[in-house]
Amino acid sequence: MEKFIKNILVTGGAGFIGSHTLITLLENGYRLIILDSLVNSSETVIKRVLNLSNLHDKKRESMAIFIKGDVRDQKLLINIFETYTNSLQSIVAVVHFAGLKSVFESTKFPLQYWDSNVSGTINLLKIMERFNCLNFVFSSSATIYGTNNKNLLIKENDVINPINPYGQTKDVIERILNNLISEKNKKWSIAILRYFNPTGAHKSGLIGENSKGFPNNLMPIINKVAFREIKELEIFGNDWNTPDGTGVRDYIHVMDLAEGHLLALEYILDKNNKSNFIKLNLGTGTGTSVLELVDTFSRVNDVEIPYKFSARRDGDVSYSVADISQAKSKINWNPKRNLKEMCRDSWNSYKKQKDYKFRKLH
Ligand code: NAD
Ligand code: WQD
To answer: Is ligand 1 within 6 A of the CB of residue 15?
Structure first.
């Protein structure tokens, strides 16, 4: 008798966090249907993920299927669910990374953000419900906590008050997911994962953070300074209420995040668990200032990072660090990689991507 196959639909799987999670899921035996519009990624990433996974050549093709498409495309989603739901297989859960993620861009193009993030998620949830696929892992963000200038660890039940359109889309999606859980007649199981500051890369350096367009986040900018594409780093403010005056954040290695997704997925799939709804902060619980990150990056990678101080950036907070006790106790997640590994792996991956592009051009 043929074995019944459990598929996982991973949206946005070609992106930064999605691609690293694919490796962990593949290594743990899941069969993946990967849907990505490639608006902020490329198909090369999928090929590299397959090469990195420890599967044999033949098995790879059957264990990961890539589909280029948009989560807002209802016909495509119906087609995917019809294709992979029959007497021999079904899509048992969706891990939903797809969405637009730039705070700055969201203030310039709010409609695109509401459409892609909120309409896209509603579309996806409607089709899931139609096919009775009711297990959902969602990529949320620490940005929903809004202004927190108290320098205290942030807990999941702290006030939600996002101050930019991007964060507001995540908040609204979380509210929709709350509504689904309150429905009496359906059996949704949902994990909301609120990432703090994802960074680092797979140790091979073959995949990493490769957003199209100019980055706004600190680590990708530091990489550009290290590569001498930018003369110096602009540090936004040295007068914050923190020990050295620069902003403090909770940087988390993307491979630790990937393992968090695996554990969250397994939690919601296990119907013996007490709760069918978990909301978890994913960070390390340790704060690092901009100057500390610059210093660690310089030392670990033996490269100078020139910087200058400039005015505070609109919308920034002094301190954003997670209380991760819920993730530890509920899904037994313990991030293992430290700041040095984040700096080393980020730089290694950045240099490799640059080298690869250079060789392709010449
Ligand atoms: P990313 O841009 O690298 O990955 C997102 C992927 O989704 C990309 O490959 C993109 O092409 C795809 N995509 C975007 N819109 C789509 C659509 N409508 N249909 C299909 N595919 C679409 O971003 P990431 O850093 O990997 O983030 C993944 C998720 O995590 C996002 O939802 C993001 O908002 C969230 N998040 C990211 C961070 C971070 O700092 N990276 C922090 C918190 C939360
Ligand atoms: C970190 C620190 C800056 C750039 C954002 C989103 C959040 C999440 C993660 C998606 C701050 C300082 C930065 C620079 C600097 N993404 N900085 N010079 O703002 O904590 O979070 O990314 O969900 O939603 O808001 O991350 O990397 O932009 O900034 O001094 O050129 O680095 O002021 O203190 P942030 P970041």
So the answer is: yes
